[in-house]
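To fix ideas, we now present one chain and its tokenised fold:
***
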Amino acid sequence: MSKSISTRKEKKSTSKELAILAMNTLTLAASVSCLVFAMNYRVPPEIIPVHEGGKYFEKTPLHLSNKEDKEVKQWVADTLIESFDFHYRNKEKHPSTLSNKYSPEALAYLDNFINDGLLSARVERESGIVELALSDGFTIDKGQVGDLFGWQAKTKGALMLYHKGGRSRIARYEIIVTVTRTDESVNVDGINISSIQMRKI
């Protein structure tokens, strides 16, 4: 009887020792893994944005202007010309190439203007190339647009269609564009077109 009790005690003791040994082995393995990881870890290089002149880049708060009025005028003119530089083969995909310069709502308006209605049908029918000719007159106002700094630009322009028969004018428009600040780490210009209206004149 006493023999069986001592045998049971020995078995319990052996089981405890085995459990402790297993836990120690796991702890040792985890420690070795952590040590190997720590020894081989390389800190990723920090990317510090700089201007072309080499000065550190600092983001301008979104409620403040980051450009002179003349820079905004030029940016709007360039963006409008690029926006209406398309042809019958690429017109459906063309708006998506401008997603970094337009808000989703403004881009949807542009896509609808280009790809729906009479303009789309005419460009298709005549296998044409479209170009925007802007007038010299360009007015710009600035101020707060909600929480963002923004500008409203107004100009006039004519959409021209180049085709086999030569060149023809589609229509003249008053173009009203609202430009607002965006995060410069997402959009390098720090601005985009948040709304656009094309009014036939």
